[in-house]
Amino acid sequence: MVTLYLPDGQILTTHAGTLEEILLRLDMNPYEILVTREGELLLADDPVDEDDVLRATSIVHGG
After folding, report:
1. Which of 1, 5, 20, 56 could crosslink 13 through cysteines, CB 3.0-4.6 Å?
2. Which CA distances in Å does 12 have to 18, 26, 43, 58?
3. CATH architecture, range 2-58
4. What InterPro entries is this protein classified in (predicted)?
């Protein structure tokens, strides 16, 4: 299972796929969150493996 640590301290698990697939599966907007794996920023089309540990950071924006 993929493990995703959220900024609020919550920990979610899900199955592998592209980062975009995973975020959409978890009802998260891929354009409002940055995700890293081992300190490296992931892009939406990057593959994520079953044993990966990811860390999410919210993007703060305003208009």
Report:
1. 1
2. 16, 9, 19, 15
3. Roll (3.10)
4. Beta-grasp_dom_sf, Mopterin_synth/thiamin_S_b
